[in-house]
Design brief:
117 residues; OB fold (Dihydrolipoamide Acetyltransferase, E2P); five-stranded mixed beta barrel
Length: 117
C-alpha cells in the first residue's frame, strides 16, 4: 500500500503556502475548504480549544451623531490548521469560509508574526 501524497494548493490570495504538510480536511492549503468573502487581520488571544483559536480584531467605527470615530473590538472564533504555526499574541490573517462549526466561519491563512513558516 502506498502512502497518499497530499498536494499543496494555491488558494489565490497571494500568501505563500506553509512549508509543513497536514491532513486536516478544513485546511485551505491541504484540505477541501474554500476561502471566500472577506479577509481580516487580528491578534490571537486564546488557543485553548482543539484546532481553534480566538482572534481579537480592533477597528474604528464612525459615529454620525458626534462626527467622530470610536475604537471598537470584536472577538471571532477561527480554525487553526496544524500546518500553520500559531501561538497566542501572533498577528494573523484569516479568511471567511463556509461554517465549520456553530461559531467558526473563519480559517487562518497566514501568520504575519512568523512570516509564513
Amino acid at each position: 500500500m502506498s502512502a497518499r501524497r497530499i498536494k499543496t494548493r494555491d488558494i489565490g490570495l497571494g500568501f505563500p503556502p506553509p512549508k509543513k504538510v497536514c491532513n486536516d480536511k478544513n485546511c485551505p492549503y491541504h484540505g477541501n475548504i474554500r476561502v471566500r468573502g472577506i479577509l481580516l487581520e487580528g491578534v490571537i488571544v486564546s488557543k485553548k480549544m482543539d484546532k481553534t483559536g480566538v482572534l481579537l480584531r480592533e477597528y474604528l467605527y464612525y459615529d454620525k451623531k458626534y462626527k467622530r470615530y470610536e475604537r471598537r473590538r470584536s472577538k471571532i472564533s477561527v480554525h487553526i490548521p496544524p500546518c500553520i504555526p500559531v501561538e497566542e499574541g501572533d498577528v494573523v490573517v484569516v479568511g471567511e469560509t463556509r461554517p465549520i462549526s456553530k461559531t467558526v466561519s473563519f480559517v487562518v491563512v497566514y501568520n504575519k508574526s512568523k512570516g509564513g513558516e
